[in-house]
Design a protein that fits this description.
Layout (H helix, E strand, L loop, with lengths): L24 H19 L12 E6 L5 H12 L3 E6 L11 H9 L5 E6 L4 H6 L5 E7 L5 H15 L6 E5 L6 H12 L3 E5 L15 E3 L2 H5 L4 E4 L15 H8 L3 H4 L7 E3 L12 H4 L7 H19 L2
Parallel strand pairs: 1-2, 1-3, 3-4, 5-6, 5-8, 6-7, 8-9
Helix pairs in contact: 1-5, 1-11, 2-11, 5-6, 5-11
């Protein structure tokens, strides 16, 4: 049962979830196992537990988010926490307050969990040094998005049974994507073979050092792949010209039914959202329930975030 007490690998580790790179394989597997126990609960008629009863969760989102923010909000409430989501667009930061000042203000309110998304890499790490509670990284700059990678892994396991031995392609704006980085760390950790596919302008230097194979050709990169993860173009992080045009990008790097045929016959499609239809993915393909796992990713995201909140909030 989801509420059963047990000795955990996370028990003796730091109480913050700042990135996949900080996790051991045992800790990652523990989160995924815990998350599995919440899938049935979330599909049932009674979704409320009291695991975090009396705990206070603050969602601190400096960047706009639909999926991540709403799923953390739901996850906390379903576990019984008191959840407060702060609108940082109207915060004191606009009046010149620093992140450290904000941290000190929040710390005085004695929260138990702070979930933070920030445009600057390393912001969750800095926050974790200034507060007396659990900090969970909901995405920081280009660095990491650990719960997205964990929900992606759970989605694959839920459909394929395992990750070990699978061949996974991550395609698109690798350079600016924290999702790509966290997935590379986690999929390698769980025994997958990872290909990354992008135009040269969107491929990080030294990416092969992360244990992946890099390609600038979709046909070669998708060959024999079980899972195809498409990424959104991170226009808000691009300074300068990285692409000739969106039309040309779609022609060479947008996923279409024709390009998907380069992968295995039973290959499945994933996307962290939001999707730019007709730019990185074909609309019909995105909505094909026989191929697309996008809706399942959203559903299982709540289960993964429930697991993280439960395991890290001692």
């Amino acid at each position: 049962m989801a509420t059963e007490k047990k000795v955990t690998a996370i028990k003796n580790t730091p109480k913050h979830l700042l990135g996949i790179q900080n996790l051991s394989v045992l800790e990652a597997r523990e989160i995924l196992t815990e998350a599995k126990s919440f899938i049935k609960l979330n599909r049932g008629s009674s979704k409320k537990l009291d695991v975090l009863r009396g705990k206070t969760q603050i969602n601190l989102f400096f960047e706009p988010s639909t999926r991540t923010q709403s799923s953390f909000d739901l996850a906390g409430k379903r576990l019984g926490a008191d959840v407060m989501t702060m609108n940082m667009g109207n915060s004191a930061l606009k009046k010149g307050e620093t992140l450290i000042d904000t941290a000190m203000t929040l710390n005085a309110m004695h929260p138990d969990i702070i979930v933070i998304r920030h445009q600057d890499s390393g912001a969750p790490n800095l926050l974790s040094q200034k507060v007396n509670c659990t900090v969970i990284n909901a995405g920081d700059g280009r660095r990491e998005h650990p719960t997205q990678a964990l929900l992606d892994a759970l989605t694959i396991i839920n459909r394929k049974g395992n990750i070990e031995g699978l061949k996974i392609a991550i395609c698109g704006d690798i350079l600016h994507s924290r999702v790509a980085r966290s997935n590379i760390y986690l999929m390698n950790m769980l025994g997958a073979e990872v290909n990354v596919i992008a135009p040269k302008t969107l491929m990080p230097k030294g990416i092969d050092n992360l244990g992946v194979k890099s390609f600038t050709d979709m046909k070669k990169g998708l060959d024999g792949c079980d899972i195809v993860m498409m990424l959104r173009l991170q226009n808000e992080r691009m300074q300068g010209s990285f692409l000739p045009s969106k039309r040309e990008y779609y022609e060479f790097f947008g996923l279409t039914p024709e390009k998907l045929k380069f992968a295995k016959k039973d290959a499945l499609l994933m996307h962290p959202g939001p999707m730019n239809r007709g730019v990185e993915i074909d609309t019909k393909l995105a909505d094909d329930i026989n191929v697309s796992l996008v809706k399942e990713q959203v559903e299982l995201g709540v289960a993964v975030r429930m697991a993280c909140l439960k395991l890290y909030c001692k």
